[in-house]
Design goal:
Length: 209
């Protein structure tokens, strides 16, 4: 995700686009059913994935060998910000990485399609908040941190969106979430060059083809 300790930073050139209308809900249709309707990635399918999917559906697609290769899947998780809440009500760590991965996917591909504007950024940022709250479950402190610390910082990042909309693929090649970041997307083994704090950069199979 686009955090740097807690302020988030991006620096891209100006670009004006319009928002596309929100599609209908999934009902019983899975993401794989929708993306399988065409051999090419497009804004409609992208919008379904980032706005109308549950976090579980997105995470399932991220780890799937059938995920569309024409989208950019690279993610550095939650960057330098904390990627987890220490404990849930059962004493288990709450990982925010799935929500951060979907947020990276959203920003990156909206920029690739020239659709990173204020409205679409707001929807993507709201999905990050919603995903973090879903992961927090009934834990009130976890939820408060997600809503009142992470979310406001995300909203401040890359503002105005029109000045941060240029897509720079060469700068977004690290992929640090496993499974999902190696050629075998379902394999939990780490791959690529070692990074800071014991992370690995992935094998660049996350890049759009």
């Amino acid at each position: 995700m686009h955090f740097l300790t807690i302020p988030l930073m991006y620096s891209f050139a100006s670009f004006r686009v319009t928002a596309f209308p929100a599609p209908g809900p999934f009902s019983d249709v899975t993401i794989r059913d929708i993306v399988a309707e065409t051999d090419e990635c497009n804004l409609k399918n992208l919008q379904q994935i980032i706005y109308n999917s549950t976090l579980t559906q997105f995470d399932d697609l991220f780890k799937s060998p059938d995920r569309p290769k024409c989208y950019h899947w690279c993610t550095n998780g939650c960057s330098w910000s904390p990627d987890s809440f220490p404990y849930d009500l059962q004493g288990n760590k709450v990982s925010w990485k799935p929500a951060c991965a979907r947020h990276d996917f959203s920003w990156h591909n909206l920029k690739r399609y020239g659709a990173f504007n204020e409205e679409n950024k707001l929807q993507a940022d709201n999905q990050l908040r919603n995903g973090m709250l879903e992961l927090c479950g009934p834990h009130k402190v976890c939820a408060e941190i997600s809503k009142n610390l992470y979310y406001p910082v995300v909203r401040l990042a890359s503002q105005p969106a029109s000045e941060h909309a240029e897509w720079e693929a060469d700068a977004k090649t690290d992929c640090t979430i496993f499974p999902g970041c190696c050629a075998n997307h379902s394999d939990g083994e780490k791959c690529g060059e070692p990074n800071l704090l014991g992370q690995y950069k992935g094998d660049m199979s996350c890049m759009a083809q």
